[in-house]
């Protein structure tokens, strides 16, 4: 699943379509496709893993799910979820969720939850976490209402950095560890973005998909943990479980 940093790169790549008029629309999406025809994409906004194409009086929300992709002026050998034809270019979206939104975005989104946005608010994140004392940190980090943009890779790496076992409960974390959790969720996401730009992200993973902990040499555990049941990699030696 593309995480928040990847969506920033997606937006940069798709910026060429801002201001262009849509000439035709097709694809398997059940939205009112003809409503897009004749309209211009005025802006592309992001909220974590949501890409938001803003039009004059509505928004198209794109969620790339686990395997979502897009092709500019090319295609895959299957029906796209959505195809947009412009004067000079065409865009094909695959394996993604597409939704038309009529409400003002400010009524739907808490922009302070976006870990990569300038308006990210760590104090608000801390307040929300305090309301979830019994939640495992492996689930808390994937809660998009708190850490919009954090995905499974970021989750695994952050918990390894701060030496916290993924099954630790939020309410059991010492104040210092809670601060580290919040700070690193944002800091590592920005680092993730830099490595992604440089094409060296995988080379810099310390624990995700790895076999051995680079810190103490212990065998990395791989389990599906928490309510989210997501694939989790952690070191049983240096990551402490807070109960």
Q: How does this model look, in words?
A:
By secondary structure, the chain is α+β, with helices and mostly antiparallel strands. The chain folds into two domains: 4-107, N-terminal domain of MutM-like DNA repair proteins; 111-234, Orthogonal Bundle (Helicase, Ruva Protein, domain 3). It is 24% helix and 19% strand. It contains five helices and ten strands, in the order αββββββββααααββ. The protein has helices at residues 4-14, 122-130, 137-140, 152-161, 175-198, and strands at residues 24-26, 43-47, 50-54, 59-63, 69-72, 82-85, 90-94, 97-101, 221-225, 230-234. The strands form three sheets. A four-stranded antiparallel sheet has the order 1-6-7-5, with no helix packed on it. A four-stranded antiparallel sheet has the order 2-3-4-8. A hairpin with a 4-residue loop joins strand 9 and strand 10 (230-234). Helix 1 runs parallel beside helix 5 (175-198). The longest helix has 24 residues, at 175-198. The two termini are 30 Å apart. 34% of the residues are buried. The model has no long low-confidence stretch (mean pLDDT 96).
